[in-house]
Structures are given as C-alpha cells and as structure tokens.
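Morning!

This is the sequence you dropped in the shared folder:
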Amino acid sequence: VQTCALPIFLDLSGLSVATTSAGHQFDVDEIRNGIREGQFEAFFQPKVSLSNGLIAGAEALARWRHPEKGVIGPNAFIPPLEQAGEMEELTFLMLKRAVSACRDWTQKKPDISVSVNLSLTSLSDPTLADQIAAITASAELDPSKLVLEITETAAMKNVGVTLENFVRLRMRGFTLSIDDYGTGFASLQQLQLAPFSELKIDRSFVTGCAENAASRAIMESCVQMARQLGFRSV
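The structure's back. Tokens below.
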C-alpha cells in the first residue's frame, strides 16, 4: 500500500490500545480531571482509498494518556461520560485537535480530510453548527475537509433538533457520515431525509465477509445502496 508522508499516530485496531488499567473503573470526576489537565490526545487512524491505495483521510480517535496507567482506550471513559451527559468537553477537544491536524496536513496533501465523532449531547444543541464553524474558521480550514460522524442511534434521538443540525452543518459545508451503519435503528427514510454524504459500514459486517456469505451480502448491499445514493462508502 502506498502512503503519503504525513505525521499520523496510527492506532490500527480502531478500537482500543493496550492498557495497564484492565478491570479498573474510572469515575466521571477522574475522567473530567484528566481532560482538563490535558491528558487526552487524538490518535489518527488512516483511511485508505481502495481504488489506488493512497491515504485519503484519517479518523481522530480519543485516547487518554494516563500518568499512571498508560494509554487508555475509549471503552474506559466514553460510557461513563455518556451516562453522565458530559461528553461535550471531550467532543469539542477532539474537534479542535482534528481541525488543527487537518489544517497542517492539507498544506502537504490538499485533498485530505479528517473525521471526528459527534456526541448525542452535541446533536441536541441548536448552536452546534455555529460552534463547529467557528473552530474551522479560526484555523482557516475549509469546512468540507472535516467529516462529522454520527452513529445511527444518535441520529434517531430527538429527531427534529438533530435533523435541523444536520441541515445547518451541511449548509456550512461540512461532510456528514453515518457511523456503524447496520447496527442501529436508522431507516431508509432517515437516509433519504438527512443530508449524509458518507456511509460507514459497521465492522461486524466487514470482518470476515470474505468467508461469511451473509456478511458479504449485507456489505455488498450497503455499498450498492451508498453508490446509488451518491454516498462515499467506508
């Protein structure tokens, strides 16, 4: 596979990195303090084009560089933050890190983009589009270079405000991606109504699809549907 010379931290698992904190339960106060003390970083997983083998973008993945327990993956801190309704601070930290990295990389590779996840809490905020636009404007980054990923489940919550945010974000020039497709509750009507331009197929269908006929059929169907809708497939 050909790659471009970009300073990307690779997390090839896409899930979590090795950690010495196995079995340790972090409370929200510990996590919040870690965020505010600058212990959280964005690792970047490359997105490779299957048509030419070149890096087309990267996804920002939150990692906690704990001073005592090493690098900690998201399963240790995302669920507690979501349950407490306190994802916003981490979400905007990752947005700023993603925008900063993308701004630097586009100077060497103008067509690269960076993806970052939006939390359910953020999608309920009617000022979301303005806040994200302010972040890209301060970095002088073209909004189209930022791909905002939304899970199926999040897309179905508080549908009225969520759809309004989607429209405002697209009008601002951002790219919207529906994440973990196939595992949530999105309907075909939802894909028709919401202004998505990228379909991210869940790994449960991609892994082993060469051997599993059912997984292969589902993946082929998703790719074909994305193509007909004019979406990019991931």
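Headline: Residues 88 and 140 are 23 Å apart (CA to CA).

More detail when I'm at my desk.
O.
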